[in-house]
Design brief:
Number of strands of chain A: 0
Number of helices of chain A: 10
Strand content of chain A: under 5%
Oligomer: homodimer
CATH superfamily of the largest domain in chain A: Tetracycline Repressor, domain 2
Shape of chain A: elongated
CATH topology of the largest domain in chain A: Tetracycline Repressor, domain 2
Number of domains of chain A: 2
Radius of gyration of chain A: 20 Å
Chain lengths: ~200, ~200
């Protein structure tokens, strides 16, 4: 097999360039304001290339969303296979999701901008599917914690939301306009506070 | 003093109508896409009326932001004057902020859409000022909790973020595309979990 030429090895292919260009334009200019022409120009491809891979701007957008959901799903086995106490496993899960979110911060930013932003005519996408899957995993861990006597008996839903809150504020904080005030190390510290309680015993 | 006519008592004045119209348009169509002409048409006033009260679209937007900050500041004495244990006071504070946020959900929605949304050329506004003030209040409560022996000694910053997380997820949840999954009563329950800890003692 011949060695790859420099161009082949260092440049992402047209499909990848389209995804990257769309992500930048959708986040910085908005979905509605980004035209097929502009996305193609930014990716250095012609319109038929976009239509060939994604059919339309809508298709390109939905692909970005599906790809991030697929990434999350692919991480689940690794994030949940950690062995240790339930509290260690909760921390491992939350740190893993935080890490992926910061590595893919542009995608997270796009998701937040579509979810909380002005409606822009982007095709409907069920963002809560990812959240629901995460809730489900945490519910499972909380149940296990209670069954094994590591957590006290309590409302599983409330306990799950308490855990998810910490992760939420840490990820949301990375999108702040100021330098983020919560870093990765804070997740374990805040979760530990939740496990042990603030109350003087 | 003569009784107010029906029109006077039931219709907001032009200034108020402009603020309401701008809030709706900025949230639903976006700041950039809402023109002075459209805002005036929705408010049923002529352009000079907008210029008279707010100088410009920018001025109208900044007024909405300043007004919500002023509302928050005006609530602080009431939210912090509650007497009781520190944990009761934290719950009272968080429930009070949640209540105001749900009463003013359109403003909260606009703030989220500007903060997390695609940049739309809206004039810069320091949203973190409100957050910082809130952090300051919670820091004060946590310090008091520790000093009075109600909370155990610990990192005040981490304890503050742990508390703020619960409030954050409850308010953010009100902007969800699905029916909110956290209601007002969950705030006290989740904070109580944080105070007491999840761990079986």
């Amino acid at each position: 097999m011949p060695a790859k030429t420099r161009t082949e090895s260092s440049q992402p292919d047209a499909r990848e360039r389209l995804l990257n260009a769309a992500l930048v334009l959708f986040t910085q200019r908005g979905y509605a304001a980004s035209s097929v022409r502009e996305i193609c120009a930014a990716a250095g491809v012609t319109k038929p290339v976009l239509y060939y891979y994604f059919n339309s701007k809508e298709g390109l957008y939905l692909h970005l969303m599906e790809e991030s959901y697929a990434l999350f799903v692919s991480l689940v086995p690794k994030l949940t296979s950690y062995t240790g106490t339930v509290r260690q496993r909760v921390i491992h899960l939350c740190e893993g999701i935080f890490d992926t979110s910061t590595q893919k911060l542009d995608v997270v930013r796009l998701i937040y901008s579509i979810y909380y932003g002005t409606p822009q005519g982007a095709p409907a996408y069920n963002f809560d599917r990812c959240y629901d899957r995460l809730l489900e995993i945490i519910v499972g861990l909380v149940r296990e914690g209670i069954e094994q006597g590591e957590f006290r008996a309590g409302d599983v839903g409330d306990m799950t939301w308490a855990i998810l809150s910490c992760l939420n504020v840490a990820i949301g904080g990375q999108l702040s306009h100021c330098p983020p005030r919560i870093d990765r190390t804070a997740i374990a510290r805040i979760l530990t506070l939740l496990f042990d309680g603030l109350r003087e015993k």
